[in-house]
């Protein structure tokens, strides 16, 4: 830019001279680097296209791996308190909305992610078909208690 020292758009600056000065300065530095391979123009263009394409795609872990079922109300319960020995890997749902045995990825509004399997239902499910009751020890139930979450079948 005119008026900005060493700008490539400044008509008073010889960019070839600046480039050769930079190369000479680089050679003066005693740096232990692996040799740099000279790239062909088409290799550079292919690399730039690959970088541009990769930047426009979401990271692999963010790409949808399952079928979105929707947004659900999430509540928590401790099956052991209820006298059950079914463990903490499951959730209770309305089985006509999400069938028994479905593997779920549950992402709460707070950003917590849980992977659970539908293994239970309850009377709540008939009145609230878009509610999931997640099994969890009382000591680990999040302080937010009841929340909303996006649910995917994976």
Describe this entry's structure for a reader.
- There is one protein chain.
- The chain is of the alpha/beta class.
- Helix content is 22%, strand content 26%.
- The chain has helices at 15-28, 41-56, 124-127, and strands at residues 67-77, 90-92, 103-108, 113-120, 131-135, 147-153.
- Strands 1-5-2-4-3-6 form a six-stranded mixed beta barrel.
- β3 and β4 form a beta hairpin.
- The longest helix has 16 residues, at 41-56.
- It is elongated.
- Mean pLDDT is 76; it is low at 30-34 and 59-63.
Overview features:
154 residues, alpha/beta, 6-stranded mixed barrel, 26% strand
Spell out the blueprint of helices and strands.
Elements: H1 15-28, H2 41-56, E1 67-77, E2 90-92, E3 103-108, E4 113-120, H3 124-127, E5 131-135, E6 147-153
Parallel strand pairs: 1-5, 2-4
Antiparallel strand pairs: 1-6, 2-5, 3-4, 3-6
Q: Please, what is the average pLDDT? A: 76
Strand content: 25-35%
- Helix count, per DSSP? 3
Count the beta strands: 6
By secondary-structure content and strand pairing, the structural class works out as: alpha/beta
**Helicity level, as a percent range?**
10-25%
How large is the radius of gyration?
Answer: 29 Å
Largest β sheet strand count, sense and barrel closure: 6 strands, mixed, barrel
Distance between the termini: 54 Å
Question: Would you list the SSEs in sequence order as H and E?
Answer: HHEEEEHEE
Shape: elongated
Strand arrangement within the widest β-sheet reads: 1-5-2-4-3-6
* Low-confidence residue ranges: 30-34, 59-63
């Amino acid at each position: 830019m005119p008026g900005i020292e060493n700008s490539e758009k400044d008509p008073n600056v010889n960019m070839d001279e600046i480039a050769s000065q930079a190369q000479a300065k680089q050679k003066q530095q005693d740096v232990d680097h692996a040799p740099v391979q000279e790239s062909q123009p088409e290799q550079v263009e292919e690399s730039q296209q690959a970088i541009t394409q990769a930047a426009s795609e979401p990271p692999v872990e963010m790409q949808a791996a399952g079928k979105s079922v929707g947004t659900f109300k999430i509540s928590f319960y401790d099956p052991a308190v209820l006298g059950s020995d079914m463990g903490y890997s499951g959730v209770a749902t309305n089985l006509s909305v999400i069938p028994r045995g479905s593997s779920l990825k549950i992402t709460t509004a707070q950003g917590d992610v849980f992977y659970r399997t539908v293994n239970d239902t309850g009377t709540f499910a008939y009145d609230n078909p878009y509610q999931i009751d997640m099994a969890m020890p009382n000591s680990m139930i999040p302080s937010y208690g009841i929340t909303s979450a996006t649910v995917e079948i994976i």
